[in-house]
Amino acid sequence: MSKDPAFLFYPGDWNLGTMHMTLIEKGAYIELLMLQFARGKFTLAQAKHMLNGSFSETWATISEKFETDGTYYWNIRLKLEQDKRAKFTESRRLNALTTKKEDVDMQEHMPEHMENVNKDRNRNKNKSKKIKIPTIEEVKQYFKESGYSEECAVNAFEYYTDLDWHDKNDNPVLNWKMKMRTVWFKDEHKLQEKTDFSPLNDILKTLKK
Q: What backbone torsions phi and psi does residue 158 show, to the nearest 5 degrees?
C-alpha cells in the first residue's frame, strides 16, 4: 500500500498551541512535523540538519511539543492523527474487497458518508453508556491539582472535544479523569517547581534568626 500523502490539520488547535511562539519558531515547528510525517520519528541530528541555522534559537521552545525516548523525537498528536487516518483507510480497503462489484463505484464516491455512518453506528451502540463531559475549567483544575501544566490540559480537552469525547479507537471516554491520568499525565507535562531566589526573602530570613 502506498504512503498516505496527507494528514488532518486543525487550524484552531494550531493557533492555540503556538500562540506563545515567534514566527520563526512556528516555521521550525511545522518543518519538524513534516520531517516526522516523512520518517515517523527523527533524531536530534536530523532536527539540526533540517532547521540548520535556526535550530539554536528555536529548539528550546519547540522541543516541548515532542516526546522522546532518548534517541528519537515525535509529536504525539501527529502520530495519533496518522494512526487514525491509516486505520480508516485500511478499513475502507477491506470493505471494498468484500463489496459486490456493482457497488464499488458508489463506495468510491462516498468515503466521507460511510465514515460518518460507521461512527454513528458506534455512537448508537454506546448510547447506554453515559459520557460525563467536563468543562475546560474542570480539566484545567484537575491538571493543576495533579501537578501538570495548563497547556497540556487545554490540548487534552480540545483533543477529546474534537472526537466528541471518544478516544482514537472510537470508544467513549466514560471516566475522563482516568483517561487524563493514563494518557496525558507524563513527566514532560509536569509543572516545574519554582525556587524563590528573592534577595528580600533572604534578608527577612536573616533578620528572623
A: -65, -35
